[in-house]
């Protein structure tokens, strides 16, 4: 029987251009799209490229032999520079659920304060805690900006603020987390009362109610569309109309519900809304990873309680000393 020596396997011919010129393979890719993306680097160098099916599977990116080494180096450099692009959105666990316990505590505190001020002895508490423009600005009684938020004229006033406040606080807590959200609401209300006092001073003006904080919460939400943490896309990438939509909606709510009725303090509502806008804009630049830390949620929750308690303690101590 005649035996024939084994023959070497045939090697595939090198790719050639449409003109028959041999080409150099500078990359093998699993998809044509990936090969085309790398080919854009070659185009940016001012040269052409070719893509052929790989007999072994995948796709071959080819260029003229004279530029093969330079093209490979440029593709490697481009891959290094774009290794972290597009930036990854933060994978954080900001507490998006509304904290019913915090809302319940808020309701209990406001109801108890309302019951306490409704008695004969409560008149002194009301006088010590209400927002008084002259006392706050000229007398330096800063606590009134906070204590006035917990006082209400009647049950209807209390229920209205609890309903609207709970609604807006729900979305503030979903945006910033329960602890930071409640702290921002209290700060917005207090800052709004301070601005109201400055607007009325030296004219005598007194007011009570949490509506300043309610509209502060609305202001916090108005700029929520500009929220960005580390890794979020830049504001310029968001269409202007989308960034202005929450602000326009909040302004509409302010106009519809914040400027009607003889007992409505329009200045306080506008001041609370403005304070919320400023605080919301500042808070929108805080990294979500920072807000998501349990210690931060606990610290901001404690700070909210301390601010309200310290304001009432100061009011009580000052009134007792007189």
Structure summarized in a few sentences:
The protein is mainly alpha-helical.
Topology summary:
Layout: E1 24-29, H1 32-44, E2 50-53, E3 59-63, H2 68-81, H3 100-117, H4 122-129, E4 131-132, H5 133-137, H6 144-147, H7 155-176, H8 178-200, E5 206-207, H9 211-222, H10 240-257, H11 266-283, H12 288-291, H13 294-321
Antiparallel strand pairs: 1-3, 2-3, 4-5
Helix pairs in contact: 3-7, 7-8, 7-9, 8-9, 8-11, 8-13, 9-10, 9-11
The helix/strand series, from N terminus to C terminus, equals EHEEHHHEHHHHEHHHHH
The computed structural class is mainly alpha
Strand content: 5-15%
CATH class membership of the largest domain: Mainly Alpha
Tell me the CATH superfamily of the largest domain: Rhomboid-like
Residue share in helix: 55-70%
- Radius of gyration, in Å, reads 33 Å
CATH topology of the largest domain: Rhomboid-like fold
Number of helices: 13
Number of strands: 5
Spatial sequence of strands, sheet with the most strands:
1-3-2
Span of the ends, CA to CA: 126 Å
Q: Based on the coordinates given, report the CATH architecture of the largest domain.
A: Up-down Bundle
Q: What count of structural domains?
A: 2
Q: Give the uncertain stretches in residue-range form.
A: 4-12, 89-95, 226-238
Shape: rod-shaped
Mean model confidence by pLDDT? 78
Largest sheet descriptor: 3 strands, antiparallel
Mind explaining what this structure looks like?
- The protein has helices spanning 32-44, 68-81, 100-117, 122-129, 133-137, 144-147, 155-176, 178-200, 211-222, 240-257, 266-283, 288-291, 294-321; strands at 24-29, 50-53, 59-63, 131-132, 206-207.
- It has 13 helices and 5 strands.
- The protein folds into 2 domains: 24-81, Alpha-Beta Plaits (2-Layer Sandwich); 100-321, Rhomboid-like (Rhomboid-like fold), CATH 1.20.1540.10.
- A hairpin with a 5-residue loop joins strand 2 (50-53) and strand 3 (59-63).
- Strands 1-3-2 form a 3-stranded antiparallel beta sheet, covered by helices on one side. A two-stranded antiparallel ribbon has the order 4-5.
- It is mostly helical and 322 residues long.
- The chain starts with 23 loop residues before the first strand and ends with a helix.
- Mean pLDDT is 78; it is low at 4-12, 89-95 and 226-238.
């Amino acid at each position: 029987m005649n035996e024939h020596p084994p023959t070497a396997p045939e090697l595939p011919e090198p790719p050639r251009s449409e003109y028959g010129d041999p080409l150099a393979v500078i990359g093998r890719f699993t998809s044509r799209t990936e090969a085309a993306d790398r080919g854009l680097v070659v185009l940016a160098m001012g040269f052409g490229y070719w893509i052929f099916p790989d007999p072994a599977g995948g796709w071959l990116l080819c260029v003229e032999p004279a530029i093969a080494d330079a093209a490979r180096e440029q593709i490697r450099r481009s891959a290094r520079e774009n290794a972290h692009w597009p930036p990854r959105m933060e994978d954080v666990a900001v507490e998006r659920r509304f904290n019913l316990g915090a809302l319940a505590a808020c309701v209990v505190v406001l109801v108890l304060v309302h019951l306490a001020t409704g008695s004969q002895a409560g008149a002194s508490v009301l006088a010590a805690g209400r927002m008084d423009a002259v006392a706050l600005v000229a007398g330096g009684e800063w606590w009134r900006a906070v204590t006035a938020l917990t006082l209400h004229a009647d049950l209807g006033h209390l229920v209205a603020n609890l309903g609207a406040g709970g609604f807006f606080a729900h979305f503030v807590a979903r945006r910033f987390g329960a602890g930071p959200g409640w702290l921002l609401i209290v700060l917005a209300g207090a800052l709004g009362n301070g601005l109201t006092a400055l607007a009325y001073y030296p004219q005598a003006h007194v007011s009570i109610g949490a509506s300043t904080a309610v509209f502060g919460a609305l202001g916090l939400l108005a700029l929520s569309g500009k929220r960005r943490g580390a890794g979020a896309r830049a504001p310029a990438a968001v269409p202007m109309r989308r960034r202005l939509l929450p602000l326009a909606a909040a302004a509409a709510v302010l106009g519809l519900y914040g400027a009607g009725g003889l007992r409505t303090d329009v200045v306080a509502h506008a001041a609370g809304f403005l304070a919320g806008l400023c605080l919301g804009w500042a808070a929108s630049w805080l990294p979500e990873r920072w807000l998501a830390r349990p210690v931060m949620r606990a610290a901001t929750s404690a700070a909210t309680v301390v601010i309200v308690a310290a304001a009432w303690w100061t009011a009580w101590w000052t009134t007792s000393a007189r």
